[in-house]
């Protein structure tokens, strides 16, 4: 990495009139592989696609992703509570695709890669003759994206099992097929002993499995798929309602169960012990008989409705530079983003640079970039959320009942959070942060408090939000209800920081001296 170049350009704008070309030799080749004027930008309701392929292939890829998103969210009753934009890069040349592969992948043959960023996600897709195999990889990674944006952090076998199961979705003209067997997984499981059932499902054992090498990692993926397939399609005598309730409860949990609780949950749902489930799963993968289902197409926008625009050389260089920064942290890519952030349309460059700063551990500089993007007119709710979280850490990192936000800062935070909610009404962290702004604002807004309370049932961090709402009650003189909410926070077993804050408030109310080291 050219450290001198990075240090010189890190903090500000490029000199007026100096573009990227000024830093390249006169006879230099195109700095970003694949950049030419043949790219097109497609936009569907939930994706942005930069494609170097035909119109038919481009619309089909987008439509299949929309169908997967619609079916997965509908079937699992998922709401994207932490929405994140997705940009897809669809290459027509394998060597161009390979130029953006992370160095850690070496010479591995791979047809699609997913990158999760704080500002947006990106998927890069290679050309291939085996479109179904490539689609499986893309679908797998996108299911992880959907789980993450729903605010879930499920046990490893649930996440990988769901991703593998839904990766087999096959789109037909009027229906989709879900659950076709994965031949590679079955071959592996028929020549390799299955992992002990407890090792498969418990989080600690799963983490240990991933440290043992590629073979065991492959078995873990394959067996997670097999268990998910067995529960959904193989064990027909089991109650589908109980199985759905089991999987749904595990998907929603913030903390994974221990082995004893896992045994209880599985026995309640299936009537089978771990030993019996192990035996049934072993017979299932070796039986050679696997069912799958046909499901109706979800209602999504038709491919013909997607907008398409030509992409000029300047724009595609910026977007490919963005991909190179996400995938390889290339110095030349950062230079291009600095130039974009200094140009007439700086929003996207500022957002990407903020993500890169955060990845490198510089939260202060990341916040500066994102605040500049918001000031320039960004409507990216992920950016609003990131800035809100950073501001909350800054202002509320150490609890103090007497603390009050400056009036101007309270209004700035309110405006930002209200704008985030207007753009993405299901984004839960904006409501949680708004509750804390009102708890420490000079004059709490009843309208905002009511807005938070209407969304309370779907919030992630209910104990901390309840604490904020209790503080608002106490601030407006409603001690009876304020103390009742504090008691409820204690009852639902909050984390130690929230519990310590509750006790601090109680001491204040009892006019006792505060003891921060207790």
User: Pairing-aware structural class of the strands and helices?
Assistant: alpha+beta
Cα-based radius of gyration, to the nearest Å: 26 Å
Distance between the termini: 48 Å
CATH topology of the domain at 381-509: Serine Threonine Protein Phosphatase 5, Tetratricopeptide repeat
What is the correct CATH architecture of the domain at 381-509?
Alpha Horseshoe
Largest sheet features = 6 strands, mixed
The proportion of residues in beta strands is 5-15%
SSE diagram, text form:
Layout: H1 3-9, E1 40-44, E2 47-51, H2 55-75, E3 86-90, H3 94-98, E4 112-116, E5 121-125, H4 131-149, H5 156-167, E6 170-171, E7 175-178, H6 183-191, H7 197-201, H8 203-209, H9 214-234, H10 240-252, H11 259-270, H12 274-287, E8 293-296, E9 307-310, H13 313-328, H14 331-341, H15 347-359, H16 363-375, H17 381-396, H18 407-423, H19 428-440, H20 446-454, H21 462-475, H22 479-491, H23 496-509
Parallel strand pairs: 2-3, 3-5
Antiparallel strand pairs: 1-2, 1-9, 4-5, 6-7, 7-8
């Amino acid at each position: 990495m050219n450290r001198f170049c990075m240090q010189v350009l890190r903090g500000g704008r490029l000199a007026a009139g100096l573009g990227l070309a000024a830093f390249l030799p006169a006879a230099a080749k195109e700095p970003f592989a694949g950049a030419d004027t043949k790219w097109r930008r497609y936009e569907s309701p939930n994706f942005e696609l930069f494609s170097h392929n035909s119109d038919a292939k481009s619309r089909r890829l987008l439509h299949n992703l929309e169908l997967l998103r619609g079916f997965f969210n509908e079937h699992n009753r998922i709401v994207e509570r932490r929405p994140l934009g997705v940009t897809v890069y669809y290459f027509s040349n394998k060597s161009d695709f390979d130029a953006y592969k992370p160095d850690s992948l070496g010479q591995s043959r791979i047809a699609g890669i997913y990158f999760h960023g704080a500002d947006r996600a990106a998927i890069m897709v290679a050309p291939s003759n085996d479109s179904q195999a490539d689609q499986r990889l893309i679908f797998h990674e996108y299911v992880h994206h959907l789980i993450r944006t729903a605010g879930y952090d499920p046990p490893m076998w649930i996440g990988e099992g769901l991703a593998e199961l839904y990766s087999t979705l096959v789109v037909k003209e009027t229906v989709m097929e879900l659950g076709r067997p994965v031949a590679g997984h079955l071959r592996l499981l028929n020549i390799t002993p299955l992992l002990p059932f407890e090792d498969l499902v418990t989080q600690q054992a799963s983490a240990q499995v991933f440290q043992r090498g590629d073979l065991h990692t492959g078995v873990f993926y394959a067996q997670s798929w097999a268990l998910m397939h067995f529960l959904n399609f193989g064990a027909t005598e089991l109650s589908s309602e109980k199985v759905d309730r089991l999987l749904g409860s595990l998907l929603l949990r913030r903390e994974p169960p221990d082995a004893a609780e896992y045994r209880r949950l599985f026995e309640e749902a299936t009537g089978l012990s771990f030993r019996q489930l192990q035996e049934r799963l072993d017979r299932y993968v070796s039986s050679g008989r696997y069912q799958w289902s046909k499901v109706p197409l979800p209602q999504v926008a038709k491919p013909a409705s997607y907008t398409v625009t030509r992409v000029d050389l300047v724009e595609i260089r910026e977007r490919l530079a963005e991909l190179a920064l996400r995938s390889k942290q290339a110095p030349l890519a950062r230079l291009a983003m600095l130039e974009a952030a200094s140009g007439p349309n700086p929003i996207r460059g500022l957002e990407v640079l903020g993500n890169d700063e955060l990845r490198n551990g510089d939260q202060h500089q990341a916040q500066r970039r994102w605040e500049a993007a918001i000031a320039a007119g960004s409507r990216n709710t992920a950016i609003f959320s990131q800035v809100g979280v950073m501001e909350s850490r800054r202002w509320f990192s150490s609890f103090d009942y007497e603390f009050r936000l400056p009036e101007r800062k309270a209004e700035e935070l309110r405006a930002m959070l209200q704008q985030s909610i207007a753009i993405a009404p299901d984004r839960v962290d904006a409501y949680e942060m708004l509750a804390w702004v009102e708890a420490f604002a000079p004059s709490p807004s009843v309208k905002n408090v009511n807005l938070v309370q209407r969304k309370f049932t779907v919030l992630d961090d209910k104990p901390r939000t309840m604490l904020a709402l209790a503080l608002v009650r106490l601030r407006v003189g409603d001690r009876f209800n304020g103390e009742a909410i504090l008691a409820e926070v204690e009852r639902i077993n909050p984390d130690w920081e929230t519990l310590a804050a509750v006790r601090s408030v109680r001491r204040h109310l009892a006019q006792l001296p505060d003891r921060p080291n207790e």
